[in-house]
Amino acid sequence: MGKEKQKSNPSGKALNLLRTRLSNPNFFFKPLSDSPDTNYSKLKFIISSSVTEACNNSILLLGPRGSGKVAVLELVLCDLLEQYPEGISVIKLNGLLHGDDNCALKEIARQLCMEHQLLFSKVASFDDNSQFMIAMLRECGLAHKTIIFVLDEFDYFAQGKQRLLYSLLDAMQSVTSQAVVIGVSCRLDVDQLLEKRVRSRFSHRKLLFLPPSKEDTERFMEHILSLPVDSSLPHNYIVEFNGRLKKILSDERFKELINTYLSFNSTIGHLVRFLFRAVSYMDLDVGFLSLENLRTALSSMQRQPKLECIRDCSLLELYLLVCMKRLEVKEQNSYNFNSVMTEYKSIHDSFQTSDYYAGNVCLRAFEHLLQRELISFTDNRGHNQSVEFRPVKLLISLAELQQGLKSYHSCPAILLKLMDR
Fold first, then answer.
1. CA 230, 232, 235, 236 torsion: positive or negative?
2. pLDDT score for 34
3. 45-74 pLDDT, tens per residue?
């Protein structure tokens, strides 16, 4: 019975497949290995040439957070460890954890001891650990083994006296050493933070990780979301799923949605989170992705603090906001608390609403809107005036107010009616 249900409704299995892909960086970065112009190919060539030619190298991987620096590096290291299982040793540090020089050298010594099954001394000094590192570089070089130092959050290592970087790069000047230093940072000017003595020993190679273009983003989405023809899913379902996906990608409404998405964040990491949400919104009863799934995912990722503030307002505060917007529609661009109260009273007299409050309560609600920065004073003059006499202006648009009212959990129908008038 369960197998028959799975065959008749394979959408659950398709959803699991897509989620697995989106959780696996190797899947969406693997196609990069086909082209020699990608950062994957360039980084792999630099590191592999250091291994095969027994030379030292240093390189910086630069780009915004979420651009795939660490993911591509991990993919390269996995491939090289398979290719040279006995010829590579990887030491990983993070500037957030090991920014202190003493702590960083101790961590290097600990990882080297663990890698080569040696006894680690917790009480060793900075000089002892430095000498141990130099000795290990020499021994590994003689054994034709390359030590790869990965320094994530590299800019934290470039602060202070930079003793770790100097000790490491200076040790690499030896003929017998065989090492690669890879710095990873989101600061594009991180090499300018290096001291002169450190900079002179650095090879100044850089790989820049840029967010994908609109065309690359669309190709990436098609690569991730298309179901493989050779999977265990029904062939007819795969054909229809991929056909619908191509229709979505060629739709003009999708093009507009992608332009909106790219306008605020276009890194690979953010794109993966966006697609994961879109896939999660897929209706399993229907069994196919829709443009609405992508639209819902985008709106859920776009933080709208003003709408959040409107949702947290009291009913009285919503009435005051609607009154101000009505005054602006009537081309009354300058108004204060007293004129807002006049509009509020006219609404009550016209519609006999039950939500009518005393003036002092309304003033407190008015001050609360000022604190939330949904409204503000039109100028900085008049500090000696009372709040109710100072002119104010709305800091939200008509569309934002309408959307906020519609998403409010118990918004009176009269407010939505007033906004349409």
1. negative
2. 64
3. 999 998 888 888 999 999 988 888 998 999
Q: Is the whole model's pTM more than 0.85, yes or no?
A: no
E-strand stretches of 162-274: 179-185, 205-208
Question: What is the C-alpha to C-alpha distance for residues 81 and 155, in angstroms, rounded to an integer?
Answer: 27
Candidates 136, 205, 126, 189; CA nearest to 161 is 126
Question: What whole-number distance in Å separates Cα of residue 416 and Cα of residue 411?
Answer: 8
Nearest to 190 by CA among 238, 221, 158, 225: 158
Distance in angstroms (rounded) separating the CA atoms of residues 295 and 400 = 18
Torsion of CA 193, 194, 195, 198, to 10 degrees: 180
Over range 295-299, report the average pLDDT.
Answer: 86
Altogether, the residues listed in the chain come to a count of 421
CB 216 within 8 A of CB 95: no
pLDDT band at 285 (very low <50, low <70, confident <90, very high): confident
**394, amino acid identity:** L
Give residue 73's pLDDT. Answer: 92
Q: Which two tokens stand for residue 244?
A: 């619908």
Q: Which DSSP string do the residues of 68-107 spell out, in sequence order? A: SHHHHHHHHHHHHHHH-TTTEEEEEEEHHHH-SHHHHHHH
The answer to whether 87 and 81 are in contact (CB under 8 A) is no
The answer to whether 288 touches 236, Cβ cutoff 8 Å, is no
| Cβ density class 75-108: b for 16+ within 10 Å, e for less | bbbebbeeebeebbbbbbbbbeebbbbeebbbbb
| Residue written as token pair 């648009």 | 397
pLDDT band at 1 (very low <50, low <70, confident <90, very high): very low
Residue type present at position 139: E
Q: What is the DSSP letter of 119?
A: P
94-118 confidence digits (pLDDT tens): 998 988 888 999 999 999 999 888 8
The CA distance from 272 to 279, in Å, is 10
Query: Where does the pLDDT of residue 180 fall: very low under 50, low under 70, confident under 90, or very high at 90 and above?
Result: very high
Whether pLDDT at 4 is above 50: no
- ∠ Cα 233 239 245 (to 5°): 110
Beta-strand pair 146-152/375-377 = unpaired
